[in-house]
Design goal:
The protein is mainly alpha-helical. The chain is 81% helix and 0% strand. It has a domain of 239 residues: Growth Hormone, Chain: A, CATH 1.20.1250. The chain is built from 16 helices and no strands. This is Major facilitator superfamily (MFS) profile domain-containing protein.
Length: 391
């Protein structure tokens, strides 16, 4: 539901503005959390957890559009590096806090916590402090208040000539068919999906022998992945901007370090994690694998979303939504697949398959990036130098 709902929220924010979508999604999240809190059976709980996914989808796709509104292209990687930290660390903090709450007060306490925090902190901040950032809407407001200042803005003509439109949900999916996006969307999908598959299988393995850990301690075991994500995301966000500054004529160069990182780090991390749990060896090996799984995923996402924002600035929300859809659908599918395949062939073989797919997709994307990067360098070398003013 997170994946498919992104196809509506992202384009809607491009057309109607970012703030109204944030507020609507937050109210819907609070409402569905309250129903989850009082769910009388598992059927109601699962149904409203799915509806929660609709609201959650708004924050990534709309957030990426917001960054494209606010930050210049040369800072989009750094901005996305910081923006991705909550997305990647949230699934780690959730089990840590949720495990403690569930063990102490029961599972309903997790939804009480979510409802109170969203209603008392998040929603007031959105209503009172969050400015609208959608450039077309803000320019129209400025024209009414101060036409002279609006006319003097350097980008006013460009913004006015590109009024936002609402793209139907199937239109963002067309972005995925573009050669400049498709291979990188595949890498994002397998990277994000593999991370979520590891998160799903982790508590199942740790609650069984020989580990036999409690719910609270299992929550603590998620921390290494969160630390890896927290460290890698801002670093590779900056590296994305650095690569873009060195190759201003080739947007895909922004992805060179991110893709190389997933190519080098993710396959070995998945192999270590899967086979450590398969042979039930020291839990330290599993945690090391989780650390690098988190770091690898966090190293890639700032680059891909910074790239999309720079490539499709006037439709940044829709473009981000398209890739976000593939990521979350992949994660949902791999969670279902892992629950079946691990039981049939074991943790080691399953994560070996994921490592192989990760290597193939990342290597193909990296080769494409390097080819375009070299072609851009050749064009620059062959172009005649600009004539001086005196000449």
């Amino acid at each position: 539901m997170v994946g498919f709902a992104s196809l509506v929220w992202g384009p809607a924010s491009d057309k109607y503005g970012r703030k109204i979508i944030y507020i609507a999604a937050s109210i819907f999240f609070i409402a569905t959390s309250i129903v989850c809190m009082f769910a009388p059976n598992i059927g109601v709980l699962v149904a409203f957890r799915a509806l929660q996914g609709i609201s959650v989808a708004a924050f990534l796709s709309v957030g990426s559009g917001t960054l494209a509104d606010v930050f210049p292209p040369f800072l989009l990687g750094t901005a996305n590096g910081l923006f991705m930290i909550p997305l990647l660390v949230g699934p780690i903090i959730g089990p840590l806090l949720g495990g403690g709450l569930a063990q102490a007060f029961g599972w309903r306490s997790t939804f009480i916590c979510l409802t109170v925090f969203s209603g008392a902190v998040i929603l007031p901040l959105l209503l009172l402090k969050l400015p609208e950032t959608q450039q077309f809407k803000e320019l129209q407001k400025l024209k009414e208040k101060n036409p002279v200042l609006a006319a003097s803005l350097k980008e006013a003509e460009f913004i006015d000539s590109n009024p936002p439109v609402f793209h139907p949900p199937w239109v963002p999916l067309r972005f995925l068919l573009e050669g400049a996006i498709f291979p990188h969307a595949l890498v994002a999908s397998i990277t994000f999906g593999s991370m979520f598959a590891s998160l799903t299988e982790f508590p199942i393995a740790l609650s069984a022998a020989p580990y036999s850990l409690s719910v609270g301690i299992i929550g603590v075991c998620y921390l290494p992945q969160g630390v890896g994500s927290f460290l890698a995301s801002p670093i590779f966000g900056k590296l994305s901007d650095y690569a873009a500054s060195k190759n201003p004529d080739e947007p895909e160069a922004r992805l060179v370090y991110s893709t190389l990182s997933t190519l080098i780090m993710m396959p070995p991390a998945l192999l270590l994690y899967g086979w450590a749990l398969d042979y039930k060896i020291s839990i330290a090996a599993c945690l090391i694998g989780q650390f690098f799984i988190g770091a690898s995923c966090a190293s890639y996402l700032p680059g891909i979303f910074g790239y999309l924002a720079a490539l499709k600035q006037s439709a940044a929300g829709a473009a981000s939504a398209a890739v976000q859809t593939t990521m979350f659908v992949s994660a949902g599918a791999l969670i279902i697949v892992s629950s079946v395949v691990v039981g049939a062939i074991g943790m080691g073989p399953f994560f070996t398959i994921l490592a192989g797919l990760q290597f193939i997709f990342s290597l193909a994307a990296f080769i494409l990036i390097m080819k375009k990067k070299r072609a851009s360098e050749v064009r620059q070398a062959e172009s005649p130098p600009p004539k001086s003013e005196t000449a």
